[in-house]
């Protein structure tokens, strides 16, 4: 959102100008060639956010996706979105754009069928991913395989969208591993310092206990008689 304008008649919300993913795909990819994989990560993150907040969009398709000047994907058109209590909640409304809808939704003229709106979103996302995979200057096998899993008829084969939010990028992994190693090193150094301080403290306590024990021993030990010299020779002096 760029600005919100309030008037006596209504409130107007101004959004930044977006490019249309649908129009670009219709022209063969154009300015988005080389960017569609990044847009797929954005779509996975966006849907994950919606689903984590119990919102199902129910009309994910290129016509409802836009992109900014710096190629960040935007999801819009929430006219038929629904709020649910989780992935297992089901509805039987016929909602979506034909050609992009999950098969379990059924047909317009057919009987109503129960389905999970969130799972239906995942199928639609898979359809979009499939188009992205076949448009981005060739075929992206990883994205295509992930799309196939999202559209699999067996729910046990469905991956989490979160898995595609984190690209399997070697540089990213290297940075992550380096950060983890630094954290582990710092923790190890802290633990070693604490251990050394504990040893020093323990040594000081032992030394102090030894001094106290020595003092107690001196106080409780039987005193030896002192020998003094009197006029008539050596004799014991009372303590």
UniProtKB/TrEMBL annotation:
MF-aspect GO terms: ATP binding; protein kinase activity
Keywords, alphabetical: Kinase, Transferase
PROSITE patterns in UniProt: PROTEIN_KINASE_DOM
Domain Protein kinase, first and last residues per copy: 1-205
InterPro entries given in the database record: Kinase-like_dom_sf, Prot_kinase_dom
Region: Disordered, residue numbers: 216-239
Descriptive protein name: Kinase-like domain-containing protein
Native source organism of the sequence: Lactarius akahatsu
């Amino acid at each position: 959102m760029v600005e919100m304008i309030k008037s006596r008649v209504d409130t107007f919300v101004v959004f930044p100008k977006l490019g249309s993913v649908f129009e670009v795909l219709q022209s063969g990819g154009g300015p988005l060639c080389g960017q569609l994989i990044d847009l797929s990560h954005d779509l996975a993150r966006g849907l994950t956010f919606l689903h984590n907040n119990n919102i199902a969009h129910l009309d994910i398709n290129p016509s409802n996706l836009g992109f900014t000047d710096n190629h960040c994907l935007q999801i819009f058109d929430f006219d038929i979105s629904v709020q649910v209590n989780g992935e297992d909640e089901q509805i039987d409304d016929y909602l979506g754009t034909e050609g992009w809808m999950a098969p379990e939704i059924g047909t317009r003229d057919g009987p109503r069928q129960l389905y999970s709106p969130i799972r239906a979103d995942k199928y639609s996302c898979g359809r979009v991913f499939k188009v992205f995979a076949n448009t981005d200057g060739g075929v992206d096998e990883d994205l295509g395989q992930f799309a196939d899993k999202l559209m699999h008829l067996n729910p046990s084969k469905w991956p989490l969208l979160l898995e595609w939010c984190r690209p399997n990028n070697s540089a990213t992994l290297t940075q992550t591993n380096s950060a983890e190693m630094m954290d582990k090193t710092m923790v190890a150094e802290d633990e070693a310092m604490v251990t050394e301080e504990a040893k020093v403290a323990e040594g000081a306590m032992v030394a102090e206990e030894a001094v106290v024990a020595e003092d107690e021993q001196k106080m409780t030990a039987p005193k030896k008689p002192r020998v003094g010299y009197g006029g008539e020779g050596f004799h014991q002096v009372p303590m």
